[in-house]
């Protein structure tokens, strides 16, 4: 796996973007002003940074390894953040799924 710091930054930016969008999302997004709140704008900026970093990561890594690895890492981080920041439940099924994803990430990392 090449450029692990860029991979980590891309994953953190993508996860941060999703968290920012969740905090910025209002129940009613009908007004154009509701789209200009700090959560939405910072989410958009973080997605942009994540996009640029992900392009670089894809350029130097095998897509069949790095894409599932990054997606799994984002899923795990979002699940943990949703629990910590928004009080979303951690069910047995969700916990089992996260453990399976982590096992898959470990296997993919060894094949790189």
In short:
The protein is an all-alpha fold. It has helices at 4-24, 38-60, 63-86, 92-111. The longest helix is centred in the middle third of the chain and has 24 residues, at 63-86.
Task: Provide an overview of this structure.
This protein has 112 residues and is mostly helical. The protein has one domain (4-111). 79% of the residues lie in helices and 0% in strands. The chain is built from 4 helices and no strands. It has helices spanning 4-24, 38-60, 63-86, 92-111. Helix 3 (63-86) runs antiparallel to helix 4 (92-111). It is flat. The model has no long low-confidence stretch (mean pLDDT 90).
Please specify the SSE layout and strand pairing.
Elements lengths: L3 H21 L13 H23 L2 H24 L5 H20 L1
State the helicity in percent bands.
over 70%
Low-confidence stretches: none
Number of domains: 1
| Mean residue pLDDT | 90
Main sheet summary: none
**Rg, nearest Å:** 16 Å
Number-wise, the strands total 0
Report the span from N to C terminus.
Answer: 6 Å
What structural class should be given to the helix and strand makeup? mainly alpha
DSSP helical segment count:
4
């Amino acid at each position: 796996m090449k450029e692990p710091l860029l991979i980590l930054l891309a994953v953190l930016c993508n996860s941060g973007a999703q968290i920012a969008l969740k905090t910025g999302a209002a129940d009613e997004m009908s007004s154009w002003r509701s789209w200009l709140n700090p959560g939405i704008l910072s989410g958009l900026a973080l997605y942009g940074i994540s996009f640029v970093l992900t392009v670089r990561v894809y350029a130097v890594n095998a897509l069949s390894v790095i894409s599932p690895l990054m997606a799994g890492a984002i899923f795990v981080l979002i699940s943990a953040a949703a629990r910590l920041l928004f009080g979303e439940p951690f069910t047995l099924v969700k916990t089992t799924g996260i453990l399976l994803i982590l096992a898959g990430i470990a296997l993919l990392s060894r094949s790189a």
